[in-house]
Acyl carrier protein (Flagellimonas chongwuensis), 81 residues
Amino acid sequence: MTNDEKILTELKEIFIETLGHDNFELDGNTTANDVDGWDSVTHMMLINEVEKKYDMKFSLMDLMSLERVADLVKAIENRQA
């Protein structure tokens, strides 16, 4: 399993826990428009859970550049490096 795949698996767990359902596919191209219940409020909840999971804080610039799940994976990898 690559690091990208590991992070994506961990993110799926966070999404399921936060959104309260698993009726979605999560891959690099997934956006908020693709997932029921992923709105502005749950987006901030997701970011908060990701920051806790990976013991990091995203900058405002990081947050503004997150359009797809792949962007979130890349931001996590950059912080881990």
